[in-house]
Design a protein that fits this description.
3 helices; single chain; elongated
Length: 92
């Protein structure tokens, strides 16, 4: 059986926990949504389509950067061929 003292302690703990609670209606801390007396705030968020397009564009940009980094100019390829030929000649 809960005594008045237990109820008082439980109420104080609930009040202390409220300080870390954010209202889903007005987006402020310190009270629950059902206790809110404020107006609902408009929070602009990009649409899901916009988020997906942005992620796709970032992925394409990363792939392009990787391709540019891995691409070597033609003179590098020629240098590699020359080195291989020299190595083969040394072996023979």
């Amino acid at each position: 059986m809960a005594t008045p003292m237990h109820r008082l302690i439980a109420r104080r703990q609930a009040e202390a926990n409220k300080q870390h609670v954010r209202c889903q209606k007005c987006l402020e801390f310190g009270h629950w949504t059902y206790e809110c007396t404020g107006k609902r705030k408009y929070l602009h968020r990009p649409s899901r389509t916009a988020e997906l397009k942005k992620a796709l564009k970032e992925k394409e940009n990363r792939l392009l950067l990787l391709q540019q980094r891995s691409f070597s100019p033609p003179h590098v390829y020629q240098h590699r061929r020359n080195c291989r030929k020299k190595d083969e000649e040394k072996k023979v």
